[in-house]
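Q: How would the structure tokens look for this protein?
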Amino acid sequence: MTHIRLPEPDRAIVARRDQITADLIAIAGRDAVISDEDGRRAFETDALTSYRRMPLAVVLPETTETIANILRYCHTQGVKVIARGAGTSLAGGALPAEDAVVVGISKMNRVLDIDLPGRTMRVQTGITNVSITAAVAPDGFFYAPDPSSQLACTLAGNLGMNSGGAHCLKYGVTTNNVLGVRMVLMTGEIVDIGGPYVDAAGLDLLSLVIGSEGQMGIITEATVRIIRAAEGARPMLLGFDSSEAAGRCVSAIIASGIIPVAIEFMDRPAIEVCEAYAKAGYPLDCEALLIIEVEGSETEITERLEQMLELAKPFRPSSHAISSGPDQSAKIWKGRKSAFGALGRIADYYCMDGTIPLGRLPEVLTAISQICTSYGLRVANIFHAGDGNLHPLIMFDANDPASEQRAEQAGSDILALCVEVGGCLTGEHGVGIEKRDLMAKQFNADDLRVQMRLKSVFDPGWLLNPAKVFPLDADQRGDLPAMRSSTLPAAA
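A: Here is the predicted structure in token form.
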């Protein structure tokens, strides 16, 4: 996928690389700075691997204060900064630039405080998603957002993209589970937003920052909500003869008022790949599969599963199976959580992310298949069906540039479809570079101007994570005065 335009680097900054690197070493220490070509190459891309750019330098600091000193220096020198967690972004959100310094937070991965009575935890944001739950699981608590990449992805990236996951149907996404953050602005100022309480006074800046994709600052610490684990949980598998029938069943369950912990969808290509990998007991004689999990006491679980079986009957499920115990449940979720990697064993693929109203799910699934077929491509659908967060996996041949470009064009058509039916461009992967130039399909010029003004308040020089989120032409400093000529007030 090579048609997404990227800006030319500032050659004057690139020419100063040796001096900038020396200054960064003086600030952060020799061990924190990666300046050799082989070392920098490890950071040249994220999970959108078709796009690669060698960063000017990489810094891996260990304290908030060091990050503040780095940003203060880059601000005075006019050097761009790319914040990076684990680099699992599927939308190019952590793609570096030749004239930008990558500031990674992977070494800042400590648990700072656990307050079980208050049900909060304070952590450094380089901690992996799964490690948050691991720290409190012995005490019967967990952290709810659980993206498929949770073994690798950091809380920092989850905050940047407002990540979700399979179990967020009931418990919400990142913004619903974070109470406060400590963030470093581009000027080097350290600010605290929110705190260890349910609702902070004043403007809700926390909701502005979460999901801002590194456009406002670098978040180094967060206070997260931890939840008491349920008495028990059990998934059920429902197979259907068509994706449309499975989609209508999802709509019926949600419309009934029942909120399971998770409702996950797989179509036949995804079922076959995931079953071959995980041996989870997925039915191979159906066109679509729902994984529905409920939790509570054994009595509650049984009643809920029986209710949903009744709701599914009008859609004539071809098979159903209820997990027999923890081992089978683990296999069922292993298959779902490993889906992207399992598909990667047999084909190159482009993982999309868009959200739609649940009532439009059946027709959208049909349209996705038609779009991919029109480009001569196969597609596997694996997604969070309960909240309409789609993840079509468009298969292509990475050794064939034409095939790769068709995959990207099909993805753009699918995202446009999501907006047309009343949805949005992203559910949890963010905008990055992938959807940047599609933003105008969802937002008009005034909408974009307001968003850009907000960025300018936090980052007047537009040095943080450049060429992401906003249409590239609007992202250029020379275009900002024209943007400010509307009736809206200019940013500070």
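The domain at 11-104 is CATH 3.30.43.10 (Uridine Diphospho-n-acetylenolpyruvylglucosamine Reductase; domain 2).

Residues 446 and 486 are 8 Å apart (CA to CA).

Upvote if useful.
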